Amino acid sequence: MHGLFAIYRKELSDHFTSFRFVILFALIAMVSFITTYMAGISLRENLEGVAKPTFVFLMLFNIAGAKVSMVDFVALFGPLIGVVLGFDAINRERAHGTLVKLVSQPIYRDAVINGKFLASATTIAIMLVSTVLVIAGFGLTLVGVVPGWEEVVRLALYLVISIFYISFWLGISILFSILFRSVATSALASVALWLFLFLFVSVGASAIANAVAPVENKESADPEQVVMNARVQESVSLISPMVLYSKATGTLIDPMRKSSKSMILVAGPFEQISMSRFQNPLSLGQSILVVYPHMVALVAISLICFAVSYLVFMTQEIRT
């Protein structure tokens, strides 16, 4: 792919020198630091005078600080990073008349879209890694607990999943920038899809579940009907990448979670005593087995989305 490195270096330079990147990174860093600081203060106060439990360091990322944890914040607002970095990747070049000049040079067409995607994905990785590292150092000062090797591996897996998750939205925004010539239209389409998956999928999943297995009062309803309603609602909600990401990262960062599915238990006193024996955290390998389907799904939809963008761009007429 002749010219790939030139496009990659140019796009990476544009990202790091743009005010858009500086404002976005400053906003994400500020919210992350505030959330972590409040979570760290709460942890330090609750752990004073008591034996520190295992995986205390991971609690900085999964305990709600300013009403939302670090994991939840990335799940909700991480898509905006991908949208901001890619909504004008192609149609901006068309509007300025530079796309024709690019492909008229000894640069292959596929190098243009590959270079833009790789540069944006690298920017996403640098943003996330730097934010997590600063938060980790910040948490060491607040909590005073050094993370173990398993916690470090869990955070590394969390970063990989987060990069693929935001890269999915990057691919979506690049696809819209190819399909729509107007920059405003591609940005609006990307934000509209984000809002739809964020707000309306849960409402639609609840409506479908109530239609398939209606439950008016969970306390007096048939337990099998309640379980069926919950399973249908959870299955439908998995079409949202946000749900896939939240379940995968939530289980990885919180070893006490035994499953990525919502737990609905109807248990008597003897069952509760039996369940209390299994309150130990999951090992790293067991947590990976639990979230493996969600991880594969996130990687797959990210690659598929970019593949669709690649095919559309390669078959599209540039000079018209």
Can you walk me through this structure?
The protein has 320 residues and is an all-alpha fold. The chain has one domain (4-315). The chain has helices at residues 4-17, 19-46, 59-62, 70-86, 91-96, 98-104, 109-143, 149-179, 183-212, 223-237, 241-253, 269-275, 284-315. α4 (70-86) crosses α9, α4 crosses α11 (241-253) and α7 runs antiparallel to α13 (284-315). The chain starts with a helix and ends in a 5-residue tail after the last helix. The relative contact order is 0.12. The model is unreliable at 263-278 (pLDDT under 50).
Question: Which key terms come to mind for this protein?
Answer:
single chain, 320 residues, mainly alpha, 75% helix
Instruction: Specify the helix fraction band.
Output: over 70%
Query: How large is the share of residues in beta strands?
Result: under 5%
Radius of gyration: 22 Å
- What is the tally of beta strands? 0
Instruction: Write the H/E string, N to C.
Output: HHHHHHHHHHHHH
> Which structural class is indicated by helix and strand composition?
mainly alpha
How many structural domains are formed by the residues? 1
Largest sheet: none
Low-confidence stretches: 263-278
Termini separation (Å)?
24 Å
Choose one word for the global shape: globular
